[in-house]
Design a protein that fits this description.
alpha/beta; five-stranded antiparallel β-sheet; binds adenosine-5'-triphosphate; Metal_Ion_Import_ABC
């Protein structure tokens, strides 16, 4: 069954149409990676899918319900969104900030339970920040705050995780940590949509790749079919070549500098 799909989805800010004709589909436990040039509408698309832009046209179906008819509390039990950038801001400690992310599991007056603390401990391990549990979120580095924001989504235990450029502030080791985490989550049947500017990341984790080509055209398909030299060259309007790396057992994308 599809975790989420859209039919003829379009969205405009005031009169400026940003995305159109988007037929997107993510099955249970699948990873969809969205690529597209700056300003094409990736964040706008992910915001629509996360329920942040209610005034879209067309259909967004989350499991068997239309997104617009799902309450925000109900939505927080099935979907978590990590927005672009390093915007985790709080004077709380990292531990308390993550614990607060469990609040949708409780009534306003109830206290966190043992299972909430256990989940926070597990997520601290997953994002590699256990040693910073007592540190104030506002005192963290950009990369640490991006990992914190991912952790905050994970404590929600979503069935669908949507992340807008989740590795943009991360060093190479932490990029790999997040990509491996994404793979591991998909293996326990969590469906994932991420955007990125790096086609190599799409090749590393994507089951499917979606290209936002212009405000009328969205192309989605199997990773190896969509990530071709021609498609990427057309998408970024810059020549991109691919070479097969036998050590990595996959194609690597790059550009000649001469
Ligand atoms: N709140 C807004 N009001 C009006 N226009 C907006 C708003 N937010 C974004 N836009 C415009 O919508 C277009 C798509 O922006 P969006 O952030 O979705 O692109 P993107 O593909 O995520 O870009 P990037 O790769 O640079 O992050 C841009 O032209 C942007 O200027």
């Amino acid at each position: 069954m599809s975790e989420i799909y859209t039919e003829n989805l379009s969205f405009a800010y005031q009169t400026e149409k940003i995305i159109g004709n988007v037929d997107l589909k993510v099955d249970n436990g699948q990873i969809l990676v969205i690529l597209g040039p700056n300003g094409i509408g990736k964040s706008t698309l992910l915001s629509c899918l996360s329920g942040l832009h209610g005034n879209y046209q067309g259909k967004i179906q989350l499991e068997d319900e239309e997104l617009k008819s799902i309450s925000s509390r109900e939505l927080s039990h099935s979907l978590a969104f990590v927005s672009q950038g390093v915007n985790a801001k709080s004077n709380l400690t990292l531990y308390d900030y993550l614990l607060l992310g469990r609040s949708s599991f409780h009534s306003i007056f109830s206290q966190p339970e043992k299972k909430d603390r256990k989940k926070v401990e597990a997520v601290l391990e997953q994002i590699g920040l256990s040693q910073y549990r007592a540190k104030s979120v506002s005192d963290m580095s950009g990369g640490q705050r991006q990992l914190t924001q991912i952790g905050r989504a994970l404590v929600q235990e979503p069935k669908l995780l949507i992340m807008d450029e989740p590795t943009s502030a991360l060093d190479y080791k932490n990029q790999i940590l997040v990509l491996k985490l994404i793979k591991a989550l998909s293996q326990i049947d969590i469906s994932i949509i991420i955007s990125t500017h790096d086609p190599n990341q799409a090749m590393m984790v994507g089951d499917q790749v979606g290209l936002l080509i212009n405000n009328q055209t969205y192309l989605q398909g199997e990773t190896e079919e969509v990530l071709t030299e021609q498609n990427l060259t057309d998408l970024y309007k810059t020549p991109i070549v691919s070479t097969y790396n036998s050590k990595l057992k996959r194609d690597i994308f790059g550009t000649k500098m001469e």
